[in-house]
Design goal:
- 38% of the residues lie in helices and 15% in strands.
- Helix 11 packs parallel to helix 13, helix 11 runs antiparallel to helix 16 and helix 14 packs parallel to helix 16.
- The chain is of the alpha/beta class.
- The chain has a five-stranded mixed β-sheet, with helices on one face.
Length: 536
């Protein structure tokens, strides 16, 4: 099998058409059998992709045919096997998220330092050296003498830098990251906050390891990478770390000897935090991966067969799961499915048609609306928000449920306004013939006060829930989507540009795409569908 070429790339550049570029890039990369992830935003492109050398170089040439990407720089490494499971091209607010819209590396950025000049800079006693990566990355390797901000996310960096004593009155700061992209934003941020001299390692750690002989290097340990290699050593060969299945942290040889470490399940960092359900699911997944390997098969990431493409659902083989009655296009059912998908809780999904409601669903909930969730203990939940809370209170890996009292109050107010005031006007705008004497345009106008409120929120934050996607986004999006689709031409010309951009990102998110597969109508005697769907 040919060796796999891996390319890491990024460029800050204005891409006003980034939404339309997504499909173009995806189809071209997919046709070349490339895998990995590309992120597109108004501010540029970022990602790591892999494939056979000729195909990958063909795609890079294609990217550079766009004049805006003509000088796109990439860094190369090699692997014996494909390090990614699938291809993803995602739309984002930022190609690297710092959460501050005024930070723009195309306007102001620190001074680039070549790897050959890096050692001299960071050994200067008047220079403060900062590792801008997250704590789990720093834990396996960093430069000698570097400060670890102990951030769990890059969005934590601004707050850390504001209170860091090392930066108070400091005039010379050097910083580094894996490939250079985080340092561009971090240096831009520090300059905007009054730091006089900011330097960053051009090409990042990976370029340094490639250019500097190990005997001259000031790098200590391995470098974390965001693919199945987990880490690379000074020769850019895969290191000795593995990825914990429970918390996705790198686990070295010593950690794997600890009694808390269970291969494919958990490590010392998450042994006491994962739930019994997670432990059971991770163990089963690891077993299936091992059995597939023993059979010489690929458990994840392979291309589906023609039969699998035409039959994209898996019948439920057991009856000990909660049963979810749902209708694909109902906004209430959409948000319930998104929460169940986020929580990764297995249910038996029964797709219904509202004009032909199953008798059993009506027995459970005589009001005849979806979603309806029938739990294994006999409890029936027939309100979407009750289903959402039930799912997320069991498992909330993406942190959808707000915990701060102000955030809880805000979320409740927005969702209540969506479900009452906005839904009232939405129904009369979309379905005016159902209501006597209704003027749909007047209801559209009345609904705009809610749209304006959401747009104002999105001027300040990337998501309705704040700095990260959460409960409010999932609860409101299906209704905004329905409103926009009533007259897309009108909606696309509204002044709510931040709301329109947010909706465009939501519609291509894994959360939304993951719930919108078409399933056959369920009827009595049929098996339901296993949801969320399992990877092929």
């Amino acid at each position: 099998m040919p060796r796999t070429l891996i390319a890491a790339l990024y460029k800050f550049v204005s891409l006003d058409d980034y939404v339309t570029l997504r499909d173009e890039f995806y189809h071209r990369a997919n046709a070349l059998d490339l895998r990995g992830t590309l992120l597109l935003a108004h501010e540029g492109i970022n990602g790591t992709i892999a494939g056979e050398e000729s195909e990958l170089r063909s795609f890079l040439k294609y990217l550079r045919e766009d004049p805006r990407l003509a000088d796109l720089v990439h860094k190369e490494s090699w692997a014996e096997t494909m390090p990614f499971l699938r291809l993803k091209v995602r739309l984002k607010k930022e190609i690297v998220t710092i959460g501050l819209p005024d930070v723009d590396p195309t306007e102001r950025v620190g001074t680039y330092v070549k790897p050959k000049d890096w050692n001299a800079l960071i050994t200067d006693p008047d220079v403060v050296l900062i590792d801008t990566r997250n704590d789990y990355e720093v834990s396996i390797g960093t430069f000698s003498g570097a400060i670890d901000p102990k951030t769990q996310s890059f969005t934590d960096f601004p707050a850390w830098s504001e209170r860091a004593p090392e930066l108070q009155g400091q005039k010379r700061v050097a910083m580094f990251c894996t490939g250079g992209i985080r340092c561009e934003k971090a240096s831009s941020f520090l300059l905007s906050r009054g730091v006089k001299e900011v330097y960053h390692l051009e090409g990042g750690i990976l370029q340094y390891l490639e250019d500097i002989p190990e005997e001259e290097s000031l790098w200590e340990g391995d470098c974390f990478v965001f693919d199945e290699r987990v880490s690379v050593d000074h020769s850019l060969k895969p290191g000795d770390y593995e990825m914990c299945a429970g918390c996705r942290r790198p686990v070295g040889p010593k950690e794997r000897e600890a009694p808390e470490y269970i291969e494919g399940v958990c490590c010392t960092a998450c042994h006491d935090t994962i739930t019994p359900d997670q432990r059971a699911r991770f163990a089963e997944r690891h077993l299936q991966i091992r059995l597939a390997r023993e059979r010489g098969e690929v458990h994840l990431g392979r291309k589906p067969t023609v039969r699998e493409v035409t039959r994209r659902y898996t019948p439920v083989k057991q009856r000990n799961l909660p049963v979810l009655y749902s209708f694909r296009r109902c906004p209430y059912a959409m948000r319930a499915r998104m929460a169940i998908l986020s929580a990764q809780i297995d249910v038996e999904l029964r797709e219904v048609v509202l004009r032909d409601k199953p008798d059993h669903m009506l027995e459970l909930s005589p009001k005849g609306t979806v979603p309806v969730l029938w739990l294994t203990d006999g409890t029936v939940l027939d309100e979407s928000m009750d289903i959402i809370r039930w799912a997320l209170e069991q498992h909330d890996p993406e942190g959808w449920l707000p915990t701060d009292p102000n955030a809880v109050e805000y979320a409740s107010a927005i969702i209540e306004r969506n479900d009452a005031e906005f839904k009232f006007h939405l129904d009369r705008y979309k379905y005016p013939t159902r209501y006597e004497g209704v003027d749909p345009i007047s209801h559209r106008t009345a609904a705009e006060s809610f749209l304006s409120a959401l747009d104002s929120k999105l001027r300040e934050y990337p998501y309705l829930s704040g700095q990260q996607r959460g409960l409010v986004d999932a609860a409101v999006m299906p209704f905004i989507r329905q409103f926009a689709n009533t007259n897309r031409q009108w909606f696309d010309q509204t002044p709510y540009s931040h709301l329109r951009q947010w909706l465009a990102l939501e519609l291509v998110s894994d959360s939304f795409l993951g719930i919108m597969k078409k399933y056959p109508q369920w009827s009595a005697g049929m098996r339901g569908i296993a949801f969320p769907p399992k990877p092929s």
